[in-house]
Specification:
Among the domains are: 6-89, no CATH class; 143-243, Chitinase A, domain 3, CATH 3.10.50. Helix content is 54%, strand content 14%. The chain has helices spanning 6-22, 49-55, 62-89, 92-95, 98-121, 128-137, 164-171, 175-188, 202-208, 216-222, 251-284; strands spanning 38-42, 45-48, 148-157, 191-193, 200-201, 225-229, 233-243. Strands 3, 4, 5, 6 and 7 form a five-stranded antiparallel beta sheet that branches. The chain is flat, with a radius of gyration of 32 Å.
């Protein structure tokens, strides 16, 4: 390997990076340009400035370019050294990877073709009726693994003006009070969630409201409204509905999950139909032969 003093290497990298940075958008002409200079070597393998230029991102300064270049050279050297070590220590049988490469190429081509076919032909529209029917037919598969809730909550700094009105608004079902609460939250709240028709994971809510001293199941079964405070914030929580883990999950909570299940099933069916169609056409056209193994 090239033996250079470490300080010379660093200096050369900064010089090289500056050169690459300045000519990143220019064409290379002739055989003796700076971009064709060999910057590292492992046995007969060489890394040139041109190789680095091909992968060098567009940085705003030569310093950033130098850091990338230094890291890239080290990675290249390490990779080539490991490859040389593998070549030297593996048996000929272990190094014979052509069959594996052929299998990988085959799998990759099939995957890309199937992906293209799915993109062109897969129907991704799923009606609410299909989702509900799947839910009813597979209800036993939809059991909650976590507690979920429908809530509204507000997190607001204690020093906020008009904070005394929040309690009145968040306890009220009047549309005007809810609208006032929404306007207040947009302007003053550090965090809030007012869509109490949407199911949320209780654990996610507890990340916003300090409920860690509460037993989750007991809290849900005994409490509807909670007001808490710490040294900085007041917290207001209104629990509208809840479901305990290990009980049936509501359809509205599973809709997107079921939609993806249905689409994935269609995808698998489409691919199997494609395979069968290709096989049938080839058989009809005498494209293949099967010989007796006896």
């Amino acid at each position: 390997m090239l033996s250079l003093h470490p300080m010379r290497i660093v200096g050369f990298i900064f010089f090289l990076s500056a050169a690459l940075f300045s000519c990143k958008e220019q064409s290379l002409e002739g055989k003796n340009t700076a971009s064709e200079q060999v910057v590292a070597r492992v046995l007969d393998k060489k890394l040139t400035a041109l190789d680095i230029k091909k992968v060098l991102p567009k940085y705003n300064s030569p310093k950033d370019s130098a850091l990338f270049t230094q890291s890239y050279i080290k990675q290249w050297l390490t990779g080539e050294l490991l490859l040389h070590q593998a070549e030297a220590n593996l048996s000929e049988a272990d190094k014979n990877i052509q069959q594996e490469l052929d299998e990988y190429r085959k799998s990759l081509l099939l995957y890309r073709y199937e992906t293209q076919l799915v993109r062109q032909k897969l129907d991704t529209a799923v009606s609410p009726q299909e989702i509900e029917a799947y839910y009813n037919d597979h209800a036993q598969n939809f059991m909650l693994k976590e507690n979920i809730v429908k809530v509204s909550y507000v997190k607001v700094q204690k020093k906020t003006s008009n904070i005394e009105k929040v309690k009145k608004w968040y306890n009220s079902n009047k549309e005007a009070d809810q609208e006032s609460l929404k306007k207040f939250c947009i302007q003053y709240a550090d965090n809030f969630f007012l869509d109490n028709t949407t199911w949320l994971l209780l654990d996610d809510v507890m990340k916003e409201i300090p409920l860690h001293d509460y037993n989750p199941e007991l809290l849900l079964k005994t409490t509807r409204q909670i007001e808490l405070s710490d040294s900085t914030f007041n917290y207001y929580l209104n629990i509208v509905d809840f479901k305990i883990k290990n009980t049936p999950s509501p359809l509205s909570f599973e809709k997107e999950n079921i939609r993806q299940i249905i689409i994935n099933k269609r995808k698998l069916t489409l691919i199997e139909e494609m395979k069968q169609e290709i096989y049938n056409q080839a058989k009809e056209n005498n494209t293949f032969e099967v010989f007796s193994t006896k």
